[in-house]
Design brief:
mainly beta, disordered N terminus, 14-stranded antiparallel β-barrel, disordered C terminus, two-stranded antiparallel ribbon
Length: 389
């Protein structure tokens, strides 16, 4: 049963980290449970190299930076996004997202979201390999957020989420038990935006941060040690050129850092003895603080744990968008590197976005040809179109 549980956990982990070889001595990626929380939900952010902490607000801001909602123009909005995941590896893993927000007044916005991840059909067997049953593991997170405008240029927010992960359907054997994993977590975010001019072109710059998934560990068995969820810190900036009333161009960059322990280096003769790094079995507050200096490779390894997202977005008359981006992760920390591209359309209050992912320098990557589809509704755009009619 423990072998089975480990297999299911591995299947969940490759949702975000893909398939990598441990042949390199320096490979030391950080793994967490419920990695679906770290996967870009929407086509807009997904087409800009998974960047979005400092871009302009939209209905999916609850994932990227909940504080951005305080600057949104529409009274309310709803968005639905769907991603067939790892289709080069399997054909039945997917992630669906339903997000929405409501503007209470000019200073306050409430938001909510539901993310559902299906891991497809998995056959359960005994330790001897005898078939027992088939189950479709699933994970989901329910989020509620509050955003507030503190000045003409700065906003802050807090969001709370409940996370549920059922990888075995309660299936147990004589050797061990299993249960669904649960966790509660919080996000804290901030967003700053102001006018500027660059190269004689009027524009706007923005800065943002999001400390996400700060929450309790998760366990799938009474006898198993609890594991960290993907607590992470994302910071970034963006700049938008307003060339005229119809054309604008945004460039953005995000930096992401996981706030969980780095696996230490253990002794070859005594697997319980740590020869470099720190003990990973610690409390959540300690883990967050120590994640900046616990890597066995020292400061250079800490720098390798930073992931970078670069993106660009062009809009014509707020009706048609072209997007592209690049995501970089060090080869010793997961080796995800890919180019992204996408388009967006806005018509009669509705928006449709599409994105496509192409891995860089990797053959047969499970992330290859990843597609994302997003549909959203904007109340103010709908009202303006209706009044014009």
């Amino acid at each position: 049963m423990m072998k089975l549980l480990r297999k299911v956990l591995f299947a969940a982990m490759i949702l975000s980290f893909g398939v990598n070889s441990w042949a390199q001595d320096t490979y030391n990626a950080i793994n967490t449970v419920v990695p679906f929380l770290s996967i870009a939900p929407d086509s807009r952010g997904g087409s800009m190299g998974d960047a979005g902490v400092a871009t302009s607000p939209d209905v999916y801001s609850i994932y990227w930076n909940n504080a951005k909602y305080a600057f949104i123009d529409s009274k309310y909005g709803v968005g639905l996004a769907y991603t067939p995941w790892l289709r080069n590896l399997v054909n039945d893993i997917s992630i669906a997202n339903l997000f929405g927000y409501y503007k209470i007044d000019n200073n306050q916005v409430v938001s909510g979201g539901l993310t559902y991840s299906s891991l497809g059909d998995i056959d359960f067997t005994t330790d001897a390999g005898e078939y027992q049953t088939t189950y479709k593991p699933n994970e989901w997170a329910l989020t509620a957020g509050y955003s507030r405008l503190f000045s003409d240029h700065f906003s802050g927010s807090v969001a709370f989420k409940f996370i549920y992960s059922n990888l075995t359907g309660g299936y147990s054997s004589t050797s061990t038990d299993s249960k669904p994993g649960t966790s509660v977590a919080a996000d804290i975010a901030g967003y700053y935006v102001n006018d500027a001019a660059l190269f004689g072109v009027p524009g706007e710059y923005a800065l943002g941060f999001n400390i996400a998934n700060i929450g309790s560990k998760m366990s799938y068995s009474e006898s198993q040690n609890a594991d960290f969820i993907p607590m992470n810190m994302k910071i970034g900036g963006s700049y938008t050129f307003f060339f005229d009333a119809y054309n604008k161009l945004t460039a953005t960059m995000d930096i992401n850092k996981l706030l969980v322990p780095t696996p230490p280096e253990y002794s070859a003769t005594n697997p319980d003895s740590i020869v470099a790094g720190k003990n990973p079995n610690i409390a959540v507050p300690v883990a967050i603080f120590r994640s900046f200096f616990d890597a066995p490779g020292g400061f250079s390894e800490e720098l390798r744990e930073l992931a970078f997202s670069f993106g660009a977005e062009y809009w014509y008359n707020n009706l048609f968008a072209l997007r592209t981006g690049y995501f970089y992760e060090n080869k010793t920390k997961g080796n995800r590197r890919y180019l992204t591209a996408g388009v967006g359309l806005r018509l009669s209050g509705f928006g449709l976005d599409f994105s496509y992912l192409v891995p860089v320098g990797q053959n047969n990557s499970p992330l290859a040809n990843t597609l994302r589809f997003s549909l959203n509704f904007d109340s103010d755009s709908f009202r303006s179109v209706k009044s014009e009619g």
